[in-house]
């Protein structure tokens, strides 16, 4: 089995897209993370779900005590404070990793890439480096013949 056989199409998210769109795509598609692409559909990096969550609360990240000053009703709506900020506005560059595999990568190569980068999602790219789909950890594991427990 090859990466191209496991890849599924997901809505693309770009660096200049609003954080709210990124969160909505991840939630609606049930994804464990997102692949961020440039204007040519070339993957730039992958964000794990917790990194996407961090985009939402980035204004509190440097001072978690600040969150204690927010009342419960307002805390329940924390996601609405993100406004029109883009992914690029909120992302710390050191957090981003590029997780891609070629279309002809084997299941073992996909697993090694996910493990090495600690990423639950990888982008499958063609020879030009453009995204052809994504493979999630769950898809990889359910497509693999696991031993009986």
UniProtKB/TrEMBL annotation:
Spans traversing the lipid bilayer: none
PROSITE patterns cross-referenced by the UniProt entry: CBS
Full protein name: CBS domain-containing protein
Species: Acidipropionibacterium virtanenii
Matching SUPFAM superfamilies: CBS-domain pair (SSF54631)
SMART domains reported in the protein's UniProt record: CBS
Entry keyword set: CBS domain
Gene3D superfamilies in alphabetical order: CBS-domain (3.10.580.10)
Keyword hit for Secreted: no
Domain CBS, residue spans: 91-149
């Amino acid at each position: 089995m090859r990466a191209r056989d496991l890849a599924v199409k997901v809505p693309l998210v770009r660096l200049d897209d609003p954080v709210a769109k990124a969160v909505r795509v991840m939630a609606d598609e049930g994804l464990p993370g997102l692949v961020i692409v440039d204007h040519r559909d070339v993957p730039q990096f992958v964000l794990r779900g917790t990194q996407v969550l961090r985009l939402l609360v980035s204004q509190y990240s440097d001072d978690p005590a600040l969150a204690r000053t927010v009342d419960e009703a307002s805390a329940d709506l924390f996601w609405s404070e993100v406004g029109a900020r883009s992914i690029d506005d909120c992302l710390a560059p050191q957090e981003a990793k590029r997780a891609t595999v070629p279309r002809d990568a084997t299941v073992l190569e996909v697993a090694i890439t996910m493990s090495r980068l600690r990423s639950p999602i990888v982008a499958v790219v063609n020879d030009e480096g453009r995204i052809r789909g994504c493979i999630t950890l769950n898809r990889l594991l359910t497509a693999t013949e696991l031993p009986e427990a």
